[in-house]
Design brief:
Blueprint lengths: L1 H4 L2 H25 L8 E8 L6 E9 L16 H8 L2 E7 L2 E10 L2
Antiparallel strand pairs: 1-2, 2-4, 3-4
Helix pairs in contact: 2-3
Length: 110
């Protein structure tokens, strides 16, 4: 895999980000439009390379569905947000009754 990414460490970061985005989209599918009309899921990404700072990939996953708070006791399921949080450098959640956006950033290096 390092031949594709260039360095094994970058491959690990890429794998973590792919997992986080996949989990965020799965959460939209499972929860956003429950008991509602089907809607859209948007995935938007960008790469930043600010002077003097590490490069970073940012991906936002958005829906127009209704937010519901995760259960305090998740039981068998319900650990998606914590898994996403542990897989990326930073996570921002903007949720409301008219939609949710989960923005994940993965730094690429120091």
């Amino acid at each position: 895999m390092a031949r594709v990414c260039g360095r094994a460490a970058l491959c690990d970061l890429a794998d973590d980000l792919v997992f986080a985005v996949s989990e965020a989209v799965t959460n939209c599918v499972d929860h956003a439009y429950r008991d509602r009309e089907p809607g859209h899921i948007r995935v938007e990404g960008s790469l930043s390379a600010p002077a003097g700072a590490p490069r970073a990939v940012t991906v936002a996953v958005s829906d127009d569905g209704a937010w519901s708070e995760p259960d305090r006791d998740p039981g068998f399921r319900g650990r998606g947000l914590s898994m996403i949080r542990s897989s990326v450098t930073s996570l921002n959640l903007a949720a409301g009754r008219c939609g949710t956006t989960l923005t994940m950033t993965q730094q690429l290096g120091c």
